[in-house]
Design a protein that fits this description.
9-stranded mixed β-sheet, 17% strand
């Protein structure tokens, strides 16, 4: 693991079946204060129809009962499971690197503690590798029947995103080590951001990439509130920095300038609203009405989005979503200035 940033475990545990020959694939998970979710994930991994598997889980400095749950699982599980207790690291990169160092398989699969892999997941993910493939991404869908309220959070990946989300990803061990593993330094503090994009892009530049649509992981629908939603919009400030680190993401940007069609319509609306105020002050009638037409695509998008978020009237929800888009615009603008990469 030369050149890869890893941590020294303060404790470890393993199942009785861990010893022996290396497995064909190792599943790597970093978890922090998600003890309530671990049983679901580990149960889903035990149910995999790919039997030649080992699992390595890093407890990234949890303060809840995560470590106790992991050691108890090691004592009773039939699968090859190794658990590592680590000092807290800001982000999952170093814990994942440490798990990779402990794993023995040549294929490394990643999923997260808020995920529920379907039983055929690993079989389909590993089957997508051929001699020219270094990294494979699977399909991620919201947990069936999940509901986290009007501001709930989940993940959907139904085609190659260019973001290499570790909810459902696998790569050759040699390819991971060749690019230096996950970065030890973070683009943003707090919840995971960008580590998987940087790693996956680096591997895909020199190794082949495939998308395995039949390798399905269900992502839990996590409860959230409006404040959480606004916090996520503020974290858009990291995307210009991500474009700086991974220039090929520029090709996926809408018109190579906007993060998405939604941010483009919001930006156009902000510009139109500003122009309306200026035109009104300068008494340039009928320009305010004409400029206001530029806001219609954004208003339509807000109305459609508000419909899917029950609990308040559509106008009230649309106003909340509109403010969130303005917050996102400010975050992207600030991030663009810091990164010296324009992305709106």
């Amino acid at each position: 693991m030369t050149g890869v940033t890893i941590a020294a475990p303060t404790d470890s545990a393993q199942s009785a079946s861990w010893e022996g020959a290396a497995a064909a694939v190792a599943v790597v998970v970093s978890t922090h204060n998600r003890g309530a979710l671990l049983d679901g994930l580990l149960g889903a991994l035990e149910a995999q129809d790919h039997r030649d598997t080992e699992v390595v889980v890093a407890d990234n400095g949890s303060s809840d009962d995560t470590w106790q749950l992991l050691t108890a699982r090691c004592a009773r599980t039939p699968m090859r499971l190794r658990a590592l207790r680590l000092p807290f690291h800001d982000g999952p990169g170093v814990p994942r690197n440490t798990c990779i160092a402990e794993a023995r398989a040549e294929l490394i699969a990643f999923t997260d503690d808020d995920c529920l892999p379907t039983p055929h997941w690993l079989s389909a993910l590993t089957a997508a590798f051929d001699a020219g493939t270094a990294i494979v991404q699977g399909r991620t869908l919201p947990e069936p029947g999940g509901w986290g309220g009007p501001w709930g959070r989940t993940l959907t990946v139904t085609s190659p995103s260019g973001l290499y989300e570790t909810a459902n990803l696998a790569a050759r061990r040699a390819a991971i080590l060749e690019v230096g593993g996950f970065a030890g330094q973070r683009l943003l503090s707090g919840r995971a951001f960008g580590e998987d994009v940087v790693l996956g892009s680096a591997i895909a530049r020199t190794g082949g990439f495939r998308f395995a649509a039949d390798a399905v992981v269900h992502h839990r629908v996590m409860a959230g509130n409006y404040r959480d939603f606004l916090d996520e919009r503020r974290r858009l400030a990291g995307f210009p920095m991500l474009v700086r680190e991974v220039p090929e993401l520029r090709q996926r940007a809408f018109l190579r300038l906007f993060l998405s069609r939604r941010t483009a319509s919001a930006d156009l609306a902000v510009a139109a609203a500003t122009a309306v105020v200026v035109a009104d002050l300068l008494t340039l009638s009928p320009w305010p009405s004409l400029i206001g037409l530029a806001m219609l695509p954004w208003v339509a998008a807000l109305s459609q989005d508000a419909k899917a978020r029950p609990g308040r009237g559509r106008a009230s929800r649309a106003a909340q979503l509109g403010w969130a888009d303005v917050v996102g615009f400010g975050a992207l603008l600030a991030g663009s200035i810091r990164a010296r990469r324009l992305l709106l």
